[in-house]
Predict the structure.
Amino acid sequence: MDDLIEYRRSEVVAALSHALDLTEGQPIGHAGRSCLVGMRVGETIGLTSSQLGSLYYALLLKDAGCSSSAARLSEIFGGVDDLELKRAAKLVDFSRTSDAVRFVTGHAGNSRGLARSREIVAAALAFKRHGGEVVAARCDRGARIVEQLGFPGESAGAVRSLDERWDGKGRPDGLVGDQIPILARVACLAQHVDFFLTAVGREGARAMVRSRRGTWFDPQLADAFLTIGDNDRLWTSLATADAPDILAVHEPGEVTGMLFDDDLDRIALAFADVIDAKSPFTADHSRGVARAAVAIGAVLGLPEAEIRTLNRAALLHDIGKLGVSNAILDKRGPLTDQERLIIQEHPRFTEEILSRVAAFAPIAVVAGAHHERMDGNGYHRGINGDELPRDARILAVADVFDALHADRPYRAGMPLERIMGIMHADSGTAFDPQMVAALVECVDELVEDRTPAPREFALEAAS
């Protein structure tokens, strides 16, 4: 029997939704604000309690598949900042040719003169050819993650159909009117309301809804939103939508519940997949680091509960990378000094994100210290071995081992002899010698296990 964890599911998911805001280039609290708007509209049109419960989690997790589009969009537009690209795209009606051309012209390419003109044409053609595929992949992946987390099929369906439009000009299936699931229609309206609220204010959001009534949005839903007056409590509640405990107050009663250990493991694993989808260079990296960390912990004889905690820290150690542009993460050439500084901030982002999640706060410092080194030459704090928690020293070894061992799009995984030569050479300076020695004991097992980690966390390595 799992131990009961005294955390509300809504608080954990709401807090982690901030990481999804980062990968979409949105201000922190976007998913929460969308949730409050959508729930208010859902209540106004008379959705059932069950539907409201499914809607609540669909809105918090609506961007679960969006990290998978980051690299492709950056590539299509010539290596530009995907976060800025996504942020700007939220305000564009791509069914209007003039708006689409203006967007591509304004964001494609980094060159000058004729070279940039060529880049703009190439981006426009690639965007027209592959844009639908990018949206479809994102929608499908988001729905799978929601299902993986154990939420209702209606929640997953809403996430998959989030970009459908009332007039049939949406993606991925071109559904029309009532063919679109009602929860997806509400979620589509709610997220666009927040895009425009944060960009141009309340009146701008209302004007957008009026102009898209009957084209983007179900007229009934548009009218329900437009009836919300200036003195309504909704506007006050939006100001605190970035606080998970406040947002949890709005969770429908039928779906409230406490979390078990297996639930937290499932959440950590799902968000590890979100993280690894951010870049093709890190596919399966979080799972690989978790495999190595758990194996090292087993060699050290750590108790089962501590290995379980270590596994979660490993799965979530790179969640801060969701806030880093793929123009930097996927850059094939050398990084500039400024780009290197941005990369070195991702452990800080990891610590900040996890610190906001009560259930994961105990692993925040450890997960955020995976690039610290024994001699103090790591980042983001630059602390030395005497100050590093044991689990951070394990993660440092597991992280580098997996990065060197795994195949990458630009190179095959390094031979084991070379990897271990690097680990031994840096033992005592970068890495804790005890952790390197533990890696040596389990490395053959890790090399043999090149398959993805199981969907459910298991403690076979500790037995």
Notes: Residues 7-67+137-256 form a domain with the Hypothetical protein af1432 fold (CATH 1.10.3210.10). The first helix runs from residue 9 to 23.
